[in-house]
Amino acid sequence: MAEPRNSETLAKQFLLGKLAPELVDSFEESLFTDDAVFEEVEISEDDLVEAYVSDELSPEERKQFERTLLRSPRLAQRIQVTKRLLMKASPPPVHIQKQTMSWWARLKAMLLPPAGSGRLAFAATALVLLVGSSILFMDWLRLRETSKTWQSERTALEKRNEELLAEQNRTSVEQDRLRKDVEAVRAENSKLTEQLEREAERPSLSTILLALTLGPGISRAPAESHTLNLPATPARIQFNLLLGSDAYVSYKAVVTTIGGREISQQSNLKSHTKGANKIVSIVLSSTRFTPGDYLVTLSGVTKSGQVDQVDDYQFRVRTASTPR
Amino acid sequence: MSVVSDPLPDKGNGAIPPDSLREESPKQKWAITAEALEKFLAVLSPDYEEAGKQYEALRIKLIRYFEWKRCDRAEELADLTLDRIVRKIDEGQIITNLKAYTASVAKFIALENLPEPLEPIEDHLGALPVVEARHDDDDPDPQVICFDRCLDELPPENRKLLLAYYQDQGRDKIDNRIQLAERLSIPLNALRIRVFRIKKALEKCIGKCLGVASIPK
């Protein structure tokens, strides 16, 4: 084995990756064949750890050592142990009190009884009081800080709450306004629709009147005679509903799509005779219809006011372009 | 122990094939057996217990070697080295100097597993597994507790020597150590070795205390 210093130098060079290339092979082999060399490298590694912790490595050595350190949790742990040993072995310096008499010493000299058992008892009592009051004072400080924190948090929460309430009020007012707007638009829309229908259904010279006579009953495909071809311009459609028997004072007709959406409802309809048939007639604007299948449900009202289901009438609406 | 799929490169041509070319067919794979391991242990020592100790010592040397060569996964590489040697012995190769042979196998494996070039060091230091000592009285750091406990458990003269050795800084530290060595009537290097062994025992105790088996190897 080489001389200790030489061996130490080689070990350090090996650890820092600075060992001369011609020495690497033999040195590495000796790590396995010579336990002393292996231990020397371990000790040198520990020296490097200490130098690293004490900031005694050159920048280049530090960089090289950190490259090994990065790959070794063991070394990281050793650094911690070394740091603690250094701290334990050399605690931070304690400032030595001046020999001159401080105000505290002078005060103590004035207050304390002369040396002896009385002085000891006094000192013990004073110490207990001092420690107790210090603890109380520290507790008070801590509570005051906690209280301050809570107070500021509470203020922030109250502020946030107020903001949320104001926001809620604003939203509520806005919702009311929007609801009113929607209602107004709906009313206007309804008014215009009624006006349009009245216009369409009002007899006038310029309005075309179409008639469609419907017999009772429902089928999957309404007959051609039960089909209404929508005119290109708005027109009044007169639906003549054939009655099997005329046993009611008046009639009520409800027109719906086949899906159940109500199109029109007319009450207090009277039957009348057309040729050999008794019929009930309703007149509707062609603007109410779009291509599709429709249903007229006719109910009869007796003298006593009882309403009976009379019959269903089916018809189909189509435009010129609707496939048959 | 693992399955060895990459035997020692042929020293005859000296070439080390790239990893991609080193894969062998499953047929060629070799798995360690109890019999192979026993042959290896017999080479280490005729005494089974002593052979076990030597095996562990060799493994720790290999782990340190790969760490010092800055290889990643030092433990895995140490096991791979041992597996290769066990295989050679199992296949009937006569090894006269096992330690030198181990060094050469380890060297090849280190060459095959050269460390990745590192990014600037500053990028890595944040990720170091160093746990800084905490100063929260309510939640004491287990490392501090273990350190204090293990230091207390050392024989008094060893604890005293350890703390004395780590006193002071700079020139004062050197002088302090010279004086310590003189007081103990031993050379400075012997003091260094003695302190290192005490420190190793301390680290072993801390490792046990923290339940970290890997630290005090």
Largest sheet of chain A: 5 strands, mixed
Number of helices of chain B: 9
Question: How many beta strands in the DSSP annotation of chain B?
Answer: 2
Report the uncertain regions of chain B.
1-27, 121-135, 213-217
- Return residue spans of chain A where pLDDT drops below 50 for at least 5 consecutive residues: 96-100
Measured by residues with Cβ under 8 Å of the partner chain's Cβ, the largest interface is:
A-B, 47 and 55 residues
Mean pLDDT metric of chain A: 81
**What's the N-to-C terminus distance of chain B?**
18 Å
Q: Taking Cα atoms only, what radius of gyration of chain B do you get, to the nearest Å? A: 22 Å
Mean pLDDT of chain B equals: 78
Task: Return the structural class of chain B.
Answer: mainly alpha
Task: Report on the architecture of this protein.
- The complex is a heterodimer of chains A (324) and B (217).
- With 324 residues, chain A is of the alpha+beta class.
- Chain A has helices at residues 4-15, 21-33, 35-53, 59-69, 73-89, 103-111, 117-201, and strands at 208-214, 227-229, 235-242, 250-257, 262-269, 271-274, 277-285, 292-301, 307-318.
- In chain A, the strands form 2 sheets. Chain A has a 5-stranded mixed sheet with strand order 2-9-8-4-5, with no helix packed on it.
- Mean pLDDT of chain A is 81; it is low at 96-100.
- Chain B is mainly α and 217 residues long.
- In chain B, helix 1 crosses helix 3 (74-90) and helix 6 (142-153) packs across helix 9.
- Chains A and B meet through helix 1, helix 2, helix 3, helix 4 and helix 5 of A and helix 2, helix 4, helix 5, helix 6 and helix 7 of B.
